[in-house]
Write a structure and sequence with these properties.
- With 291 residues, this protein is of the alpha+beta class.
- Helices cover 37% and strands 33% of the residues.
- The protein contains six helices and 16 strands.
- It has helices at residues 117-122, 138-148, 154-203, 208-229, 231-236, 240-252, and strands spanning 7-14, 17-19, 24-26, 29-36, 42-43, 48-49, 51-57, 61-72, 75-81, 87-94, 101-110, 128-133, 256-258, 264-272, 278-282, 287-289.
- The strands form four sheets. Strands 1-4-7-8-9-10-11-12 form an eight-stranded antiparallel β-barrel. Strands 13-14-15-16 form a four-stranded antiparallel sheet, with no helix packed on it. A two-stranded antiparallel ribbon has the order 2-3.
- Strand 10 and strand 11 form a beta hairpin.
- Helix 3 (154-203) runs antiparallel to helix 4.
- It starts with 6 loop residues before the first strand and ends with a strand.
């Protein structure tokens, strides 16, 4: 149910009909109701108010300002000042099912300085008007959308999450397999291409590049076949992050020493002397004793 039924814009527009014998137009009726009974937010051109309405028929039209109101559920009892300055009572009835607003005109509350004849001259309202929500009313549209919106259950959320993760994993492995195939084809194509180029040079120099291309194609096909048979290995191969992590571990486990000139050297071999002392051998073959 809408939290604020008496906030929004409603309208009714009846197009005029033509009296064929006389050619005169009749039956035109327009009413636009713009209200906010919860705060003064309706701009009448001078100040912010709780709203009012515009009404027009065959005789004329004008603006009517709502001067007071009382809300009772989906009904609101109002008083308004019509173009003749006479104060009338009326009832607004909101329908939650179709969002319509029914305007039921009432009686004269205060004649003010007007005369009785001015009612017939300037009172343009029908006794009852059923107004539809305006298409441009964001408040009505937003409430309609919110009422149609259904919260997703916990089971559906978990299922959607699992499905999304499964799709991501599937896409990852498909791309991984394709990359493996491509690398195999390129590697064997390159190797066979080089062999074909060398063989073509010795067999027939004018045709050496053609031989190389054919050999590269054959090598690529062989590489692709090998890659297909090695699909299991491609799938089980570690992620790039894992490879990087292993490389980092190896780097952290390396031992370095400095020679008499202060140069940093990587230790390639360690050993123990007769007396149990530790010796290091660097990448250049130099031997150091651990102090």
């Amino acid at each position: 149910m809408q939290d604020k039924p008496f906030k929004g814009v409603w309208e009714i527009v009846n197009e005029p009909e033509i009296d064929e014998p006389t050619g005169r137009m009749y039956g035109a009726y327009t009413m636009v109701l713009a209200i906010d009974f919860y705060e003064k937010s309706v701009d009448n051109g001078i100040e912010k108010t709780h709203g009012g309405f515009f009404v027009e028929n065959d005789r004329g039209g004008g603006d009517c300002e709502i001067t007071s109101f009382t809300i009772d559920g989906n009904k609101a009892y109002i008083e308004y000042e019509d173009p003749s300055t006479i104060i009338f009572s009326a009832t607004l009835v909101y329908s939650p099912s179709d969002k319509t607003m029914t305007f039921i005109d009432g009686d004269v509350v205060d004649m003010q300085e007007a005369s009785q004849s001015m009612i017939a001259q300037f009172h343009y309202l029908q006794q009852e008007s059923v107004l539809q929500p305006s298409k441009g009313d964001n408040n009505q549209n937003q409430n309609t959308i919110e009422e149609k919106k259904e919260p997703m259950g916990t089971f559906e959320t978990i299922l959607l999450l699992i499905l999304s993760v499964g799709i991501l994993i599937g896409v990852y492995y498909v791309l991984k397999i394709i990359l493996g195939y491509v690398l195999c084809a390129l590697l064997f194509g390159f190797i066979f291409g080089v062999i074909g180029l060398i063989a073509g040079y010795f067999i027939s120099q004018p045709d050496m590049f053609s031989v190389a291309v054919v050999a590269a194609i054959i090598g690529a096909v062989i590489g692709l076949v090998i890659g297909i048979f090695g699909t299991k290995e491609w799938i089980s191969s570690p992620l790039a992050s894992k490879v990087a992590e292993e490389m980092g571990k190896r780097e952290r486990n390396k031992i370095y020493v400095r020679d008499q000139y202060g140069n940093k050297k990587e230790v390639k071999q360690t050993g123990k002397g007769i007396l149990g002392e530790t010796y290091y051998r660097d990448e250049d073959g130099n031997t150091y004793q651990k102090p």
